[in-house]
Design a protein that fits this description.
about 50% helix; single chain; about 450 residues; elongated; 4-stranded mixed sheet; alpha/beta; 17 helices
């Protein structure tokens, strides 16, 4: 026959505690409760909640017992009751004495906090809130305690960094960003903070020790000036790489600018032709030949307007209709087709594995862009010329920002599942918890091997 003390301790998954009695009652909504009156055993009743050392008692018991929520037993709501008191720690001062079933400052048992943290990594926060019968904002506090329990020293992520990626991602409308740094070797987020720019990135570098700074060998990112300035200031000996994805994106932006210019010219030409052949009351209608000219001019403008997707795709992935659009542009608009060829040539250069060959081809491309008589690609020439060494570093080392772009997608998914975050710290806790190799232990489960 199992005693009540042993049964409750096993169900609560707690040690170093004594169960005095249990009470059953129903609240005004008809929900069944079991209230367990427990206390720490005599060897741990005056422990500090931070350092867990036995300390001198500061005052007597509180007049009202404190209540902690536990995991439900079936459909029965579980509560743990104890008359808390304060202790005086020589290091941490006056604090409420530690209890073995809960984290400091929490109103829930440890198993409850860990379960909420595990559910929050997979489910929307509103679903976790309803299932666990807690407030929406309380989920964030449970996640914070879970993260601090399984990883009390987050600074250890900064040890032994060699290849890192830096990027910013938006978390809310209105240009609200967070800066994220990913370890390429472990594919985990090692640091994240609200905002973006040089001042934010400097916070990351300034908390690194000289040994941690010297271990960084490669930094990848986009072509942002503030990233390059921080890399040169704090880790001048490491290699700075510009991600090929962003270089092609620059070329796409230049190509789209040319496409819009060509479309405006074609549209204005169609308008002028239509004005030259008005069809108003009292005037003869345009003939079939004139209508054909007007319709051809309008069709030409529409084809250019709707060609953005075809011009953005690689030639090997074009459908038949998209190939026809590119062929039409090649035949009718030399300037736009040259811009398309320059974009494709740059994309193929970035796929070259031999750095000497890539340097030779990039040099030839830069000459082509600088003599193209296309303003958008002349500006692109200046931009790529500034980052030429960084682009060649990327080709030589075979690095990219693909991992951090994938991490950004995870962060977007975290935000969508939560329907946004009011508290930025709650979001950062979820980023550290999800975008890492941390495993949240569930009660009475054998931990899975990593």
């Amino acid at each position: 026959m199992v005693s009540t003390n042993t049964l409750c301790k096993k169900l609560l998954n707690v040690k170093n505690a004594v169960v005095e009695r249990c009470d059953f009652y129903s609240d005004q909504d008809g929900v069944n409760h079991i209230q367990i009156h427990a206390r720490p055993n005599v060897w741990h009743k005056d422990d500090c909640p931070i350092c867990h050392k036995c300390c001198r008692r500061y005052d007597r018991k509180n007049p009202q017992p404190r209540i902690w929520r536990g995991l439900d037993w079936g459909g029965t709501l579980v509560e743990v009751s104890y008359d808390t008191h304060r202790i005086e720690c020589p290091v941490h001062g006056v604090l409420v004495a530690d209890v073995p079933w809960a984290y400091p400052g929490s109103g829930f048992t440890k198993d409850f906090d860990l379960t909420v943290g595990w559910l929050a990594t997979y489910l929307p926060r509103s679903a976790v809130s309803e299932y666990m019968r807690i407030d929406w904002e309380t989920v964030g506090r449970c996640v914070h305690r879970t993260l601090n329990d399984i990883e009390p020293e987050r600074s250890k992520r900064l040890d032994g960094l060699v290849n890192i990626g830096i990027d910013e991602t938006s978390y809310r409308k209105g240009h609200k960003y967070i800066t994220v740094i990913v370890n390429h070797d472990t594919n985990t987020v090692v640091w994240a903070a609200q905002g973006h720019g040089k001042s934010v990135l400097e916070q990351f570098y300034r908390q690194l020790t000289p040994a941690q700074l010297s271990s960084i060998k490669v930094v990848t990112g986009d072509g942002a000036k503030w990233i390059t300035e921080c890399v040169n200031a704090f880790t001048p000996e490491c290699e700075r790489c510009v991600d090929p994805f962003h270089v092609v994106e620059w070329a796409m932006e230049a190509l789209d600018e040319v496409r819009r210019e060509v479309w405006r010219e074609a549209y204005n030409e169609a308008v002028e032709i239509a004005k030259a052949h008005p069809c108003k009351k009292g005037r003869p209608k345009a003939g079939d030949a004139e209508n054909a000219i007007i319709n051809a001019a309008k069709a030409k403008a529409d084809e250019i307007k709707n060609s953005a997707y075809a011009l953005g795709k690689a030639p090997e992935h074009l459908t038949e209709s998209q190939q026809a659009k590119v062929a039409m542009i090649a035949e009718n608009n030399n300037r736009l087709y040259r811009a398309y060829r320059m974009k494709e040539t740059l994309r193929l250069i970035l796929k070259i594995k031999d750095v000497d060959e890539a340097e030779s081809e990039l040099k030839r491309w830069l000459w082509w862009a600088s003599h193209s008589r296309i303003a958008a690609f002349k500006n692109l020439y200046l931009k790529i010329k500034r980052h030429k060494d960084h682009i060649l570093n990327t080709i030589r080392l075979g690095m990219s920002n693909a991992r951090i772009e994938a991490t950004n997608n995870k962060i977007k998914l975290i935000i969508r599942k939560a329907y946004g975050f009011r508290n930025i710290q709650n979001m950062l806790d979820m980023v550290y918890l999800v975008c890492s190799d941390l495993k949240i232990p569930l009660p009475n489960r054998k931990p899975k091997s990593v």
